[in-house]
Design a protein that fits this description.
The complex is a heterodimer. By secondary structure, chain A is an alpha+beta fold. Chain A has five helices and four strands, in the order ββαααααββ. Chain A has a two-stranded antiparallel ribbon with strand order 1-2. The longest helix of chain A has 17 residues, at 44-60. By secondary structure, chain B is mainly alpha-helical. Chain B has a four-stranded parallel sheet with strand order 2-1-3-4. A three-stranded parallel sheet of chain B has the order 5-6-7. The longest helix of chain B has 19 residues, at 204-222. Chain B is globular. Classes of the chains: A alpha+beta, B mainly alpha.
Amino acid sequence: MEVMNTARNKILVDEKGFLARAEEWNEDVAHILAEREGIKELTEEKMEIVRFMRNYYAKFHAFPILNYVCKNIHQPRECVSGAFDNPMTAWKIAGLPDPSTISFVKIDGEHYHMEECC
Amino acid sequence: MTGSIPTKEWMDVPAVFKEGNFCYPAKKSMVEYHKFPNPREWSPDQDDWKLPDGWEDIILKGLKERLDKFRSLKLFMDTCVRCGACADKCHFFLGTGDPKNMPVLRAELLRSVYRNDFTAAGKLLGRLAGGRPMTVGVLKEWFMYAYQCTECRRCSVFCPYGIDQAEITMMMRELLHLVGVGTNWILEPAANSNRTGNHMGLQPHTLKDNVSYLCDDIETITGIRVEPTFNRKGAEILFITPSADVFAEPGIYTAMGYLLLFHHIGLDYTFSTYASEGGNFGLFTSNEMMKKLNAKMYAEAKRLGVKWILGGECGHMWRVLHQYMDTMNGPADFLEVPKSPITNTVFENAASTKMVHISEFTADLIRNNKLKIDPKRNAHRIPTWHDSCNTSRAMGLLDEPRYVLDHVVPKWYEMPENTIREKTFCCGSGTGLNTGEIMELRMRSGLPRANAVKHVEDKFGVNTLACVCAIDRATLTALMDYWNPNVKVCGLSELVGNSLIMDGEKERETGLRFEPLEGMEG
């Protein structure tokens, strides 16, 4: 666990970069998490993706189909990979829990793709 | 592989765990969820595995029970003559060069303990008779090599005694679970499947919403609105497929293929949000777990009052369905022998299980001229065919997918003869080994398959690896990215769906992946 300082308080992040206490999330926290993930600027387009993921998770308790995200927020296909390279980065910035039956791998040196358990 | 002559007997070479050569152990919470013994935090690369007191007796008692219960296991322990026909048939041996990945030696890891404690020769002569006592070192070796076997059964094809190496691996994994040694990438999906009906943990409304999104994309691409139903009582057919089909690329394109096909022929079918998983990670855990997770299929078929079950593109699902389901959870005498409502073909081969594979169903539709197909829509693809281990070796599904391919793409090419059909090479990541932490091992064990793909890529310009397995679709994508980055992976039903001429469709501009179809209409 790693402790990080925000403007108002401290947050806890696990060794993989997932926010430990979901209730601590707010958009300021998102910016701090983004910085930790090496995302230089959390633009409004990127924040839209993050917000959508949070709303999606609240309703469906699952990782979304990535182009479903883009379609719903009226961004071009592949918007998540375009904005974050690794889609899991967006998920972490959204303060959501480690979905331990999926992972993203980058084998060809260019693109991440999701590997699901089955 | 160094090519050097070993300086030690195999029994004296310990299994050494280091980051990258083992799957992460099951979380304590997962072991507790399944009510398996010895939940705790531990790691294979630490010396102390925190085994329970008396663990040796637990293993030996467990082995005795299984020897009494499964005649196959007793037979496989007794009959091997160490001829070595299997040795170089294993993709894990070919990829790693580790002698303990020769199937004969992998089985010997268990057989040596069997000899020591359950045969007269072993009890008297011990190591002289090839026996050795159960020790922590032996247990660690089991864990290493039972999880460097994908239960693909290629070795069994070549075994003159027909020893089923998969069943030996299954037994080793079962025994390991008795003392709390298992992997998270298997036990968590199994827990999800038990709780939500599917490995991905999709709740009913999520599953429905995902399918609805695929229907939206189908409408965008074809102009046709397909309207699948869920949990509909009185439907003629229950359709069950891996949850990955409605969860992630490239599986979702396969699912779009099913949806288009069923709409095309006006099939009276329903999805279930309860029996919402084709796969069964119980197969990779224990017989009891497999039985429990499988039971949902017949239970749901009975509840909904369907006539029979149609199954989607999954590999190990068909090993469970074809070789175990009927005797584990059957007989399903409340179902009818499957009969295609479109062609009236009776699937006598499924008379006992009452479950038909999507490829045999589709091949029958094509053979009876029930589909309007334009193979030129797949002209941008030059596929080769990967026989999934379980559909080919466990159910003999060899010609049906080839017949479908013949009709839905302009041309496709076979990989070399000793790498296809019943001699097919595994993707290298089946049986729950498709996890990121052992990526190097996976790329090694997948090398024989990738090498055969490389051959047809170089020779014929193949750019697509088609298959009928959800694990394949995920893992072959990584394998191709590494060894043959110009080759993309797809399910067979994606190619079927993409080739269908739908009544009332708009002019098609793209394929199911929104890739352009230039001048292919016709």
